[in-house]
Amino acid sequence: MTEGTPPEERDEEPTRVVTPHDPAADETDDADADDGTEADEEQLGPDVPDDVRKYERFKKIEGGTYDRANEFLRERTYVTAREWAIARLCADFRTETGVEMTKIGENLPELVPFMTDTYTPQAVNQARASFEEKVRKSGATFLYGAMSDFFTAEELDDVMYEATEVAKFLLEVEGVDLAVEDEMEAEDRISSVMREVREHSAALRHDEVCCPECGHEFGVDEK
Fold first, then answer.
1. Per-residue confidence of the chain (223 residues) as pLDDT tens digits?
2. What contacts 7, CB < 8 A, 6 or more positions away?
3. Is-contact 39 32, C-beta < 8 A?
4. What share of the chain is helix, strand, coil (3-state, %, to 5)?
5. Which regions of 79-177 does DSSP assign to beta strands (E)?
6. What is the percent of the chain where pLDDT is above 70?
7. What is the DSSP string of 137-188?
8. What is the number of other CB atoms lying within 10 angstroms of the CB of residue 86?
């Protein structure tokens, strides 16, 4: 991947991660082997901001590759590894004046192990916007499926269970420590919300519906 290449093209041909090997590192003395802080700082370089050095997300997949992360996400979600990682970075590097897109783009390989090239601020913004658009469209698609009576209550529970498991896995990969109690509480709350969605949508299907574009109301015959 090279800076300036359209992001979607980069997703189609992700760069393979190759971990550089420094022969001199084999001769590190015992003191350096016990404390790698100094060596890490030298590897990152003097211009890397402190908050970038201390960033701990995505450390669980340091040995992975962009290809593997991208394949996992494409099989289970609508977002790519690039969009996922950059969306998380934009949330974590948000200040009172906005998102630090220049910092994210310039330090992308240091922040996310499976990203190997720097990005322009425009590319960072484009990836974040793409992520947000896909989430909105996925949400609309899911809710329509849930509200339109295409699924039974049991089938909808299965859909929610699978979606929740994928979401939890991605959070764990990012470094979030999920307690069992918190997981169970979240699942209960989601199930409760979806039951309400089904109840209200059933009532809506037997009432008037309003066009989201023009506001015109259409009468719906009771079934």
1. 444 444 444 444 333 333 343 444 444 444 443 444 444 444 555 578 899 999 989 888 765 688 888 999 999 999 999 999 999 999 999 999 999 999 999 999 999 989 989 999 999 999 999 999 999 999 999 888 888 888 888 888 888 889 889 998 999 888 888 788 877 887 788 778 777 877 777 766 655 556 655 666 655 444 3
2. 82, 123, 126, 127, 130
3. yes
4. 60, 5, 35
5. 94-95, 98-99
6. 69
7. HHHHHHHHHHHTT-S-HHHHHHHHHHHHHHHHHHHHHHT----HHHHHHHHH
8. 30
Measure CA 75 to chain center.
14
C-beta of residue 18 within 8 angstroms of C-beta of residue 138:
no
Amino acid identity at 28: T
In the structure encoding, which two tokens stand for residue 209, read together? 């519906």
| Continuous segment of H or E residues that includes residue 210 | strand 209-210
What is the C-alpha separation between 187 and 164, in angstroms, rounded? 8
Cα(32)–Cα(21) distance, integer angstroms: 17
Number of helical H runs and strand E runs in the chain: 11, 4
Here the tokens at position 33 are 């082997």
Quick one: DSSP state of residue 15? P
Burial of residue 168 (CB within 10 Å: 0-12, 13-18, 19+) is middle
The answer to whether the pTM exceeds 0.70 is no
Q: Which of 74, 212, 55, 219 is nearest to 143 (CA)?
A: 212
Q: What are phi and psi of 7, to 5 degrees?
A: -55, -40
